[in-house]
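Handoff note, outgoing to incoming analyst
You'll be picking up this chain. Sequence as last confirmed:
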Amino acid sequence: MRNKSATALAVLFILALAFQAIPASAAAVQAEPFHFGFKKSRGGQLPSIAEEGFMPILKNHQAIFLGNTDKKELYLTFDNGYENGNTGQILDVLKEKQVPAIFFVTGHFVKEQPELVKRMANEGHLIGNHSWSHPDMTRISDEQIRQELEKVRIEVAKLTQQQTMNYVRPPRGIFNNRVLGESQKHGYTNVFWSIAYRDWETNRQQGWNYAYTNVIGQLHPGAVILLHTVSRDNTLALDNIIDEARARGYEFKRLDTLEVKVYR
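Most recent structure output, in case you need it:
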C-alpha cells in the first residue's frame, strides 16, 4: 500500500513540475530576442517572414511588414542614426520628385541636425522614432524603453509642428514581444520593412547602380522600402529608383495612409 501511495505521490509531483514549466517556457519564448529578417522578393514573388519565427508577434502587435499587396503602392522609409552629408540631397530629390517619406531619427541626429529635422517636417515628411541612444531594446527595462522613445518625441516636437509621433523602428531591427508591446502601449506602430540591402557600411559603398539594382530588383506591391541615409550609393541612386518605380506603375504613398497590413 505504501508503495502505491509513494508511486501516486511521485506521479503528482512530476505533473506539478510539468505544469509549472509551461508558463516559464512560454515566457522564455516571449522574451526571446529576434533580429528582423525576411525572405527577399525575387522575380516578382512577394517577400516572406513565414519562416522567421516571429510573424505571430508582429501580427499580434499590428506591426508593419507589408502594405496592401494587391496595389502597386510603395512606402519609402529612411533610417537616420547620424548625418553623413547626404540627407539634404535626399530631401532635394524627394522635393523635386514630389515623393513622401518617413525618416526614423535618433537622439543624436535630432540634437546634431535640428535644421534637417525641421526641413523634413516642413516639406511634408513624417518623422519616426528610432530611439534616443540606439540601444538593444530587448536588454533595457520597460521604463527605459519609455524614456528612449519619449525623449525623441519631445525634442522633435520642440523643433517642428509634429507634436505626436506614431511610428517607431527598433534599433538594429532587434525586438521581442515585450519591446513591441511596450512601444505599442505608448501609442506607436512598429515599422519593419520588405525591401532592404546591406547599405549602411560607409566604407563598402559600390556606386549608385549597386543601390539601384538592389532596390529595383526587389520591387513588389505594398513594399516598405528601408534605406539608410548614410549611404552615398542610396543618395545618388534615389532619383533613378523613383523614376523606374513609377515607370513600372508604382505610386509612392505616405506611411500614415497605409490601411492594410499583410503578414506572410
